[in-house]
Amino acid sequence: MSEDEQEQEPIPFLRIPLNGTYGGGPMAEITIYTRVSGESNDVKEETFQFPYAFIDQAKLVGYNAAHLIAGFKILKLEKPSALRELGL
Asked: What is the per-residue DSSP string for 1-33?
């Protein structure tokens, strides 16, 4: 190593814990509509909440096109404060 490489200061960085305590990104609420079997075409609605990055929108569109679900709705919730501090 040359003297220039040894004298450089280390680049500061932010350590993000990977144990789930930091969060998986902005949260989202996804509502899935399914048809209830029976005489009337009633629609059942189920809502789930988890990180937005985990939603596979291509699969949802495919399920909707294949009539496995009647429809879906995605609502992106407010960003966690830790991500707001990073500007994400």
From this structure: --HHHHHPPPPP-----SSSSS-SSSEEEEEEE
CA distance 31 to 48: 6
Whether 36 maps to a domain, the answer reads yes
Contact criterion met (CB below 8 Å) for 72 and 45: no
Domain that holds residue 37: 24-86
Q: Dump pLDDT digits (tens) for 57-82.
A: 999 999 999 999 999 999 988 765 66
Element (H, E) at 76: strand 71-76
